[in-house]
Amino acid sequence: GRSKAAAKIAAGEPFYHGKVRTFLLEKKHGKICCEAIHGMCGQDVYVFQEVLERSKSCAAGPGDTVVFFLHWSARGQPQASSPLLRLSGPGGAPTLRGTVKTVGEGVGYLECEDTMDFFGQDVYVEGELAAGLTPGQTVAFSVGLTEEGTPRVESLEPCEESWQP
C-alpha cells in the first residue's frame, strides 16, 4: 500500500523542491524556481496547470514552495511531474493540517496524510516549535526539507480540525 510518491522515493527516484515563480492561466503552465535544477541546466522547471491543480492539499500557485518529481521533455527541458505537494504558501504560510503524534524533550512528530503519502514518514518537529504541543492536537503547518530531504516543520499553529489551506 505505498503511495505513488513514496514508492518512487523508495525506488531511489530523486525529488526536488522550489518556489512556484509564475503561472500563466491563458497558457495553462507555470515555472518553478529550483536551485538544484538551475544548477544543472540553468533553467526554471516548467509545470503544467494540471500538475499544480493535482497537488494533494489544494492547487499550488505563485509564491508556494512545492516538492515534486522531475522528467525531461522531448526538447530537453526540465518539467515537474505528479505527484506534487505544497510545502508552504507565500511567506511560509501553513498549507498542511496534521495531528501531533508524539512529543518528547524538545522534539515531536506530526501525522499528516498528505506528507505520509509523499514522503512515507511522519514530519519531525524540533526546538521551540515542539514546546507546548500535546498528542492529538490538530495543527496547521508548513514544511521544509533537511539536506537529506527529510520533511521537518518550519512553522505551525494550533487550528480546528476543519481548517483548510
Description:
The protein is an alpha+beta fold. It has 2 domains: 4-87, Beta Barrel (OB fold (Dihydrolipoamide Acetyltransferase, E2P)); 92-158, OB fold (Dihydrolipoamide Acetyltransferase, E2P) (Beta Barrel). 16% of the residues lie in helices and 42% in strands. It has 4 helices and 10 strands. It has helices spanning 4-10, 35-41, 49-53, 113-119, and strands at 16-24, 29-33, 45-48, 65-72, 78-88, 96-103, 107-111, 123-126, 138-145, 151-158. The strands form 2 sheets. The protein has a 5-stranded antiparallel beta sheet with strand order 3-2-1-4-5. The chain has a 5-stranded antiparallel beta sheet with strand order 8-7-6-9-10. A hairpin with a 3-residue loop joins strand 6 and strand 7. Helix 1 (4-10) packs parallel to helix 4. The longest helix is centred in the N-terminal third of the chain and has 7 residues, at 4-10. The two termini are 26 Å apart. The relative contact order is 0.17. The model has no long low-confidence stretch (mean pLDDT 93).
The gist of it:
The chain is built from 4 helices and 10 strands; from the N terminus they run αββαβαββββαβββ. With 165 residues, the chain is of the alpha+beta class.
Key features of this structure:
4 helices; 2 domains; NA-bd_OB-fold; 5-stranded antiparallel β-sheet; OB fold (Dihydrolipoamide Acetyltransferase, E2P); alpha+beta; CSD domain-containing protein; 165 residues
Chart the SSEs and their pairings.
Elements (H helix, E strand, L loop, with lengths): L3 H7 L5 E9 L4 E5 L1 H7 L3 E4 H5 L11 E8 L5 E11 L7 E8 L3 E5 L1 H7 L3 E4 L11 E8 L5 E8 L7
Antiparallel strand pairs: 1-2, 1-4, 2-3, 4-5, 6-7, 6-9, 7-8, 9-10
Helix pairs in contact: 1-4
